Amino acid sequence: MIKDFEKNIKIFKAIGEINRAKIIRILSTGEKCAGRLLEEFNFTQPTLSHHMKVLIDCNLVKYRKDKTVTYYSLNEETCCNVKRFFNYILTNNNINKNNF
After folding, report:
1. Each residue of 47-87: pLDDT tens digit?
2. Which one of 3.40.50.300, 1.10.10.10, 1.10.3720.10, 1.10.287.3240 gives the CATH number of domain 5-90?
3. Phi, then psi, of 32 in degrees rounded to 5
4. To which H or E segment does residue 63 belong?
5. Alpha-carbon span 13 to 71, nearest angstrom
């Protein structure tokens, strides 16, 4: 996953939207239900659902349902992979055209 540019860039694009970046920041403190996330924003539930779908589709966020409540949390494995990828693109001193 470290050298997988397409998957990682999809994640960077997802968190390049300010509200999704804020959602990630909120989820970094632990699992939250949709209602709790909505308290932090001035938008509707359908808008939250759209943002969450984008974050889930790139595997950055996972969810679970408990009856009628949806809970969201960060996918820690993906977060670690993204950190390694970012470190890789910042520190690789052996760049050649075969690495792309």
Report:
1. 999 999 999 999 999 999 999 999 999 999 999 999 999 99
2. 1.10.10.10
3. -135, 145
4. strand 61-66
5. 23
